[in-house]
Design a protein that fits this description.
single chain, 5 strands, five-stranded parallel beta sheet, alpha/beta, disordered C terminus, globular
Length: 194
């Protein structure tokens, strides 16, 4: 079974760290969405200017294409991406068509992507950002990230993991959730076959 995981959350939540550790542990491909931002986006963020939907949509469409390209040959993959708004997550799942769709009803492609929301307090994440060096995202943009965040909710396919744990504990919790999801999916498939 091919799994497409998006490790999501505000800047400084540990998406890249958790995603890369999980990918290494599972032997899956890993992509960091930050590597695919156009130069204009990184310049804006470095100057402390929050991105708007027009800045993000082409970038999200490119990330959707990467996920679908990996799914096609049967490659499970992990993408670290902020995916702050519900619309952004719909674009990651369905591509450009999601920009114009107002429907929150899940379609068959919704279940292809599992969002892993790394959830923590602003204070915890701010303390992490103070220690981070060499990243283009200005720490003063953290408030705008929290203001933009629409935590995932039903009918989205997601799990939420608390950041009040070590990276290894977070990775283990996600791995256990994936195992349970696989068992559940297999059981449902077997029931449907009868």
């Amino acid at each position: 079974m091919v799994l497409l995981l998006v490790v999501m959350g505000v800047s400084g939540s540990g998406k890249s760290t958790v995603g890369s550790h999980l990918a290494t542990k599972l032997g899956w491909k890993f992509y960091d969405a930050d590597d695919y931002h156009p130069t204009e986006n990184t310049k804006k963020m470095a100057q402390g200017i929050p991105l708007n939907d027009q800045d993000r949509i082409p970038w999200l469409c490119k990330l959707h294409d990467i996920l679908m390209r990996e799914e096609s040959p049967g490659q499970s993959v992990i993408l670290a991406c902020s995916a702050l708004k519900k619309m952004y997550r719909r674009i990651l799942v369905s591509g450009r068509d999601a920009v114009y769709s107002k429907s929150d009803q899940p379609d068959s492609s919704t279940q292809k992507v599992l969002f892993i929301h790394l959830d923590g307090s602003m204070e915890l994440i701010a303390s992490r950002l103070e220690k981070r060096r060499g990243h283009f995202m200005a720490p003063e943009l953290l408030q705008s990230q929290f203001d933009t965040l629409e935590p995932p909710s039903a009918p989205e396919n997601f799990i939420t993991v608390s950041l009040e744990k070590s990276v290894s504990e977070i990775v283990s919790e996600i791995e256990k959730s994936l195992h349970l999801d696989k068992c559940f999916s297999r059981a449902v498939s077997e029931l449907d076959a009868h």
